[in-house]
Amino acid sequence: MVARNSNLAKLPGGYLFPEIGRRRKACQEQNPGARIISLGIGNTTEPLTPHITEALARAAAGLGTAEGYSGYGDEQGFASLRQAIADKLYQGRVGADEVLTSDGAKCDIGRLQLLFGNQVTVAVQDPSYPVYVDGSVIMGASGDFDSASGQYQGIVYMPCLPENQFFPDLGALPRTDLIYFCSPNNPTGAVATREQLAQLVEFALANRSIIIFDSAYSEYIADPSLPRSIFEIEGARRCAVEVSSFSKPVGFTGLRLGWTVCPRDLVFDDGSPVLKDWNRIMTTVFNGASNVVQHGGLAAVDDTGLAEMRRTVAYYMENAALIKRCLEEMGIESHGGVNAPYIWARFPGCKSWDVFARILNEAFVVCTPGSGFGPAGEGFIRFSAFGHRADVVEATERLKKLSF
Ligand code: PLP
Questions:
Q1: 404 Cβ partners below 8 Å, 6+ apart?
Q2: pLDDT (average), residues 186-210
Q3: For the chain, where do the domains classified as CATH 3.90.1150.10 start and end?
Q4: How close are the terminal C-alpha atoms of the chain, in Å?
Q5: Which residues have CB under 8 Å from 276's CB, separation 6+?
Q6: Where in the chain is the domain with CATH 3.40.640.10?
Q7: Which of 63, 150, 224, 365 is the most buried (most CB within 10 A)?
Q8: Domain 52-303 carries which CATH code?
Q9: Average pLDDT of 121-142?
């Protein structure tokens, strides 16, 4: 027999969303006639736009012809797509050779964890997207789980609450090798200001840390004064990598396409470039994003695609506004939902899973318990703006009948 990887045994209770799915299923079994609406998982619901659909169909049909067929491509992705991402989404702030495309940001986070190995120390926003912590645990870079605090002993948790404008007190933090930072944030919907990111970069440079900046929701930033990329900040090229994705702005959650920007200037202690090792990882354990999907990505970032992307984002942001208004009418404090598709609602004195259960069993609406994103998420609930409009409207009508 083979011994189980002991790191996996350290993960308590499994991943958050399977647990939510289990409870939803149980609720459906108890209430067979109920139509459960999900404002829970951040999965996109609206169809691909026509311009992207046409590009995908053309690319797929091309594969059936002698001239259009292609097999393996460069692991880093089409040169044209890397250039288009650098030009259109980063306004030339990063080089095409620094952009490596992939099958999504989640997968890139896992491969970055492989890149940095298990000897690194790690800091995460608390609450945060679970993959930063869980992936670090699987790699063996977390230490043991302490059930009293709900924290891994080897991970530094940076509390991000309304009281500190969702930005950690950097002066109170120990040095770590890696700092995971997500803006717009999942789950709080908070977006870091330019000043805050400048402080973060200064902190990382002073500590010789590397920021893993997750900008998967950057297209949801409507306020032009807010930074969409860490590379808008002076000095970030020497202390950050950025993961991002086509999932949330154009609905590629199922198609799978993302990218990571790893600047040439970023080096390890021994002076060797991180980009060189990142290329080595990508060419070893990844074989390139699907060629059909990359054609879809090219369409998404041309002028027509970008206009359609703005419409898709606007649709979800109208949902966010509806949910925010509903919570306001209910007298519930909420955050986010303005430059981000998540609304972070506060239920003082309540346990997140208890609020989740009430909303599920009394309104047949699925949300996400804040405590699933880290100990500082206790007492909060995340509502996602990804949903069909009619469902969001109905969910808000049902929510308004509850009182907390
Ligand atoms: N990063 C954050 C913060 C997310 O919330 C998600 C998905 O929910 C991802 C990354 C995953 O993106 P992708 O679909 O590109 O893997």
A1: 330, 332, 347, 350, 355
A2: 98
A3: 8-47+306-399
A4: 52
A5: none
A6: 52-303
A7: 365
A8: 3.40.640.10
A9: 96
DSSP state letter for 97:
G
User: What is the residue with the minimal CA distance to atom 1 of ligand 1?
Assistant: 216
User: Residues, the chain, total?
Assistant: 404
178 C-alpha to center of ligand 1: Å? 19
Measured between alpha carbons, how far is 304 from 358 in angstroms, rounded to an integer?
44
Cα within 13 Å of Cα(369), Cβ side: 26
CA of 105 to the centre of ligand 1 (A): 5
Q: Which residues contact 6 (CB under 8 A, 6 or more apart)?
A: none
C-alpha–C-alpha distance, residues 151 and 135, integer Å: 14
pLDDT in tens, 263-308: 999 999 999 999 999 999 999 999 999 999 999 999 999 999 999 9
pLDDT single digits (tens) 312-330: 999 999 999 999 999 999 9
pLDDT in tens, 165-177: 999 999 999 999 9
% residues pLDDT > 70 (the chain): 99
Q: Which residues line ligand 1 (CB under 6 A)?
A: 42, 104-107, 129, 182, 186, 214, 216, 245, 247, 253, 258
For 266, the token pair is 């970023």
346 DSSP β-pair partners: 380
Among 180, 183, 247, which is best to mutate for testing ligand 1, by the most ligand atoms less than 8 A from CB?
247
Measure 30 CA to ligand 1 centroid, in angstroms.
32
Structure tokens at 121: 């120390």
Question: What's the CATH number for 8-47+306-399?
Answer: 3.90.1150.10
Say what the pTM is: 0.97
Work out which ligand 1 atom sits closest to the CA atom of 247: 14
Q: How far is the CA of 379 from the centre of ligand 1 (A)?
A: 23
Mutate to test the pocket of ligand 1, among 16, 43, 106 (most ligand atoms within 8 A of CB): 106
